[in-house]
Description:
Layout (H helix, E strand, L loop, with lengths): L7 H4 L3 H22 L1 H80 L5 E7 L9 E3 L12 E3 L4 E8 L4 E5 L6 E6 L5 E6 L4 E3 L13 E4 L11 E10 L6 E7 L8 E5 L13 H14 L1
Antiparallel strand pairs: 1-2, 1-12, 2-5, 3-4, 3-12, 4-5, 6-7, 6-9, 7-8, 8-11, 9-10, 10-11
Amino acid sequence: MSQESLDFAGRGFKPVTQWFIYSMLAFLLLIADVRFEWGNRIRSSMLRWVSPIQTSVSLPTGTFKQLRWFWTRQDVLVKQNQELIKQQAFSQARIQENQALIAENQELKNLLDLKNAHAKVVAAAEVVSMGSDPFSIRVTLNKGTDDGVQTGQAVVDADGLIGQITSVNSHQSLMTPVNHQKFVLPVKVERTGFRTLIYGETTHLSLRYVPTDADLRLGDVLITSGIDDNYPAGIPVARVVHLETADDLPYYRVQVVTLGHPDSARYVLVLPQTNPQSFRQPENAETTSQSKSKSKGKS
């Protein structure tokens, strides 16, 4: 069928006739496509040639969209990361705050148990200041004479003795901690009853002149002996953590650690003296030795 044979207009066909002829041709093509799948073959052949052209044409637009999505997504991720960092810092602060509250509640609970364990307690106090001189530590408590606090009274936390009241006014009092360099405390070994003196060394405690024939072991707990009337007997003070003998001396070299926490306790109990008249300021071993020598010289 040539192009001239389909020139219906040149032959003078009416528009209705032309429409009918084209409709019949379309119907025949539709039947042929359904029956013989000519359309699919033609479309497949055309797509094989058209698809690379479509890809080439759409490549710049697709690349631009990908780049725009990437940078937009990058900005979103940066903002989300910054927000997450802020949330993490806030959460970490809340966790630390909660941990501090948990520790404080546990300390208060232990102190309450200790208060119930002691028959007599003068006052429960809070540490409000640690002083400004690291070599002469004085801890300030928020209880004074109005609360029954007096000089010479023992101060304990939930784990043991931490100091002694050495100065007091109506609303506050000063506590000298057990590790103060002038602190001397009569103690005894809880296991055997062996009595000795414990000395403050600013950063720790020490035992001096403990004879090697004394029954002393690692882990022994030292408690107040009660013989000086300033401290009630039986308060835990320290634990032996190192013990050795020197070849040239008949004494042990002893290291002990405090059971209480004079440097970190926040809530404490003030205990009454056995004999309030016997109080004297903590003094170091040298002062004690000098006073004993003077008394012997006078005698």
